[in-house]
Amino acid sequence: xxxxxxxxxxxxxxxxxxxxxxxxxxxxxxxxxxxxxxxxxxxxxxxxxxxxxxxxxxxxxxxxxxxxxxxxxxxxxxxxxxxxxxxxxxxxxxxxxxxxxxxxxxxxxxxxxxxxxxxxxxxxxxxxxxxxxxxxxxxxxxxxxxxxxxxxxxxxxxxxxxxxxxxxxxxxxxxxxxxxxxxxxxxxxxxxxxxxxxxxxxxxxxxxxxxxxxxxxxxxxxxxxxxxxxxxxxxxxxxxxxxxxxxxxxxxxxxxxxxxxxxxxxxxxxxxxxxxxxxxxxxxxxxxxxxxxx
Length: 294
Ligand SMILES: CC(C)(COP(=O)(O)OP(=O)(O)OC[C@H]1O[C@@H](n2cnc3c(N)ncnc32)[C@H](O)[C@@H]1OP(=O)(O)O)[C@@H](O)C(=O)NCCC(=O)NCCS
Hints:
The chain is α+β, with helices and mostly antiparallel strands. It is built from eight helices and 14 strands. It has helices at 12-24, 32-38, 81-95, 120-125, 159-169, 173-183, 246-260, 274-278, and strands at 49-50, 54-61, 64-72, 100-103, 114-115, 129-130, 134-140, 153-155, 191-196, 199-207, 229-237, 265-271, 283-289, 291-293. The chain has an eight-stranded mixed β-sheet with strand order 5-13-7-12-11-10-9-8, sandwiched between helices. The protein has a six-stranded mixed β-sheet with strand order 1-2-3-4-14-6, sandwiched between helices. Helix 5 runs antiparallel to helix 6 (173-183). The longest helix has 15 residues, at 81-95. The radius of gyration is 19 Å and the shape is globular. Mean pLDDT is 95; it is low at 1-5. Bound molecules: coenzyme A.
């Protein structure tokens, strides 16, 4: 486990904030609390470098690694600094056993990919494969009317049930993040569970600012949103029960619950399912290109 786990070097968070907000702050305003969370994942961070002119934040769990951010101060861009930082990080990650390096989408990520439009050309030049666009979606909930009938989903009261469902259906980042929320002392109630004949068949995580210790990624850019903002994600239905309308029913339940709690400005992060969420009135807000190095 890397030296900066939960304990970044003195001055590191300030430098990360300055570099990030200097280069990306208008589209992606980074708060101190989110910067701290981004840097606190208990993963290997040995390939991370933070200097005055630029930084690369790299994370690794076994053979899977991520570039969480690479940022060069605007006055030092196009002078080879980004290439030097990335070459260092990729070399170090590979030497440590990484076989796949993704750009964004890291544990406790800021971004699910490269901002679009943005620096995809930089990563392509380094050999990355650039993938199709994913979106953060947004909807004004002022006109939202909850569907009729009894609620189809209820907040979880047992972490084990949440983790068991996610672990069976969505092993990987979704399960890791739920376990991380539990480790940090959050309760399970941010997860809405949909049951059929008593069996959990779907799960959606809801986010309200300041309500949970772990800041949900749909609220990463909350400074751009109304104070009455909220978010949802991830949301997933048991593979064996898909295509029966349960996903949309769970989505409607999640939106209605947030609306009842005062949310008027809602975000769903990191998705390519514009058609599905479009049925509930969500539209593209922020765009990213995931990318990876084999
Ligand atoms: C992306 C970034 C890190 C690149 O760092 P840099 O030091 O400016 O890049 P380099 O000088 O090493 O560039 C090498 C080559 O990459 C390409 N490139 C660099 N920036 C690019 C951009 N914004 N768009 C497209 N291609 C780019 C160019 O081909 C460049 O060679 P050239 O200058 O001879 O044409 C820097 O522009 C930056 O900080 N951007 C804002 C933060 C960001 O979007 N980071 C990515 C998401 S985490």
